[in-house]
Design goal:
With 272 residues, this protein is an alpha/beta fold. The chain has two domains: 229 residues, TIM Barrel (Alpha-Beta Barrel); 28 residues. Strands 1-2-3-4-5-6-7-8 form an eight-stranded parallel barrel, surrounded by seven helices. Helix 5 links the parallel strand 3 and strand 4. It is globular. It is found in: Cytoplasm. Keywords: Cytoplasm, Magnesium, Metal-binding, Methyltransferase, Pantothenate biosynthesis, Transferase. Its EC number is 2.1.2.11. This is 3-methyl-2-oxobutanoate hydroxymethyltransferase. Homodecamer; pentamer of dimers.
Length: 272
Amino acid sequence: MSIAKRDYKRITVKTLVDMKANGDKISMLTAYDYTMAKIVDGAGVDVILVGDSASNVMAGHETTLPITLDQMIYHAAGVVRAIERSLVVVDLPFGSYQSDPKEALRSAIRIMKESGGHAVKLEGGKEVKESIKRILNAGIPVMGHLGLTPQSIYKFGTYTVRAKEEEEAHKLKEDALMLERIGCFAIVLEKIPAKLAQEVAESISIPVIGIGAGNGVDGQVLVLHDMLGMTHEFHPRFLRRYMNLYEDMTNSISQYVKDVKAVDFPNDEEQY
């Protein structure tokens, strides 16, 4: 079992590149608010992703598409106030970067200035190349995202594994090389064959973070609410649940309701 070989005091984009070079795996989780981010950071997670998955787990939308730039900034600002060690990466939401590189830069600047985030993440390859270059030229670090890109769900029509066919796999490899070449500091690969993900990770010098992409990459990311078992309808193969908080929280809240109705709470020691 691989364990961290060095103690990294404060994570930066350079730290992540160093971690890959040193063979140290990178841990990444989502967080969307101060309290949860405080716990995640304190537990030693290297990267906190303020993901547009907040659209699903925090707001109850079916897809990531409805969340706005203002909402992403709100979530990210709370996370940034909580952290002491982790690198905070913030998703650029759907519609904030795809159509116009100038709009992409404006969106990225707003995230950096108004939330205090350390980097942005956006989905896509050569089709968003100019937007990425514009953001990078302003000195803003960019994490790429290839494979299953949830903001394109209506184009794909399904959340199934991507890049199983040779043509799509070839494009993904080319896009990964392009993202490295223009200056991205890392790439997320989502829901692609493990063999392909390993090939990509070995072909580039920047870290590759996987979700549903096997263990041959440089790190892993999961949605916090999924891995803690707060959500219970979602059962992809790549998800390992480390707790069953849905059941634990339901039982605790039910017990609270019973105690209140039975006038058992508060008891003599719990009042002034």
